[in-house]
């Protein structure tokens, strides 16, 4: 018995305007300076920087370039770090915590400058982000956080009390929130397509549907075996993130692929969009399993995303959960049709910080924890400069030890449904406390 159809299409909304496609086959170079595994945001950004410095570079993707998270994500330029400042300080020290906080601002500015200087046509709009608070206690915490961002980093951020909430989000669900004006939105598939265009023009060789099967030391360099043949590489950079496979067993034990799902509504009337998203901002909230949502670039639809606890196939339940969340926020959308529902893998790990690290001579740029729109281009570019020995340009607070391995884990995230249930329980407790 087939499950009922809950959305018109199960492919990403973004692929309507920027479909992912294979690249024409090309000869495999016998030797390169650098082999890059993965041709998403991080791999292409690294390859672009390397090629423009005269390095011979080949990037290999097991799928079509960008077919993973790079063309499936929400397109919000948050640069979010999963850990809060206090937790980072406790784990890694105050100096590291402040460096990470400050680098988020630099990474966003890097992305915006890159889009502008390279003339990338990706519907980028610096519209700001509203984050809704679950209860007044969380609102007070957000308000203090907004003040700190403005004071310490000069970021335009401010609290939004409940009385003014509908000026930003047409819902009564939250109890106020905060705004950050340094965050915007882009069309993720268009951004990848444009990044691929400039990377190819720079001389980067990109091989689509060419999985890497092994990476082995070979004298002072490496032997990279692929489905199309073997390449000798002086250096290797791994940028596989949520789609890491058996070619990198060391990384696979450290990254957990977690499904993130997004739904898109049918086109809504202009007056409905004006009520529900009056400033056409990016949107988030303070729940552990909270939703992120936004208007489509043309301002005609609402796209809403969140975690998906399913592990196989394309079941209807995760889409129905997101639809229920959409209606909880905006009750007038109870009968709205969903045009698209799709999922992609984000990469989580025990440290929850994006990372550059080196192991046995291989450099890794990975672990973006759901915020790759900002972090992947930034970390990929820093990793390229690390490979080239450019000290200052390679400098980043995210270059340190590898993430810790996960006990009893070798690539099959059997524990994720239990983790998701744990987060859901935390949200229920927080909601109960907020509504007492």
UniProtKB/TrEMBL annotation:
The keyword Oxidoreductase applies. The keyword Chaperone does not apply. It holds the Pfam family DAO. GO terms for molecular function: oxidoreductase activity. InterPro entries: FAD-dep_OxRdtase, FAD/NAD-bd_sf. One of its GO terms (cellular component) is cytoplasm. Keywords: Oxidoreductase. Residues 33-384 form the FAD dependent oxidoreductase domain. PANTHER family: FAD DEPENDENT OXIDOREDUCTASE DOMAIN-CONTAINING PROTEIN, SARCOSINE DEHYDROGENASE-RELATED. This is Oxidoreductase. It comes from Mesorhizobium temperatum.
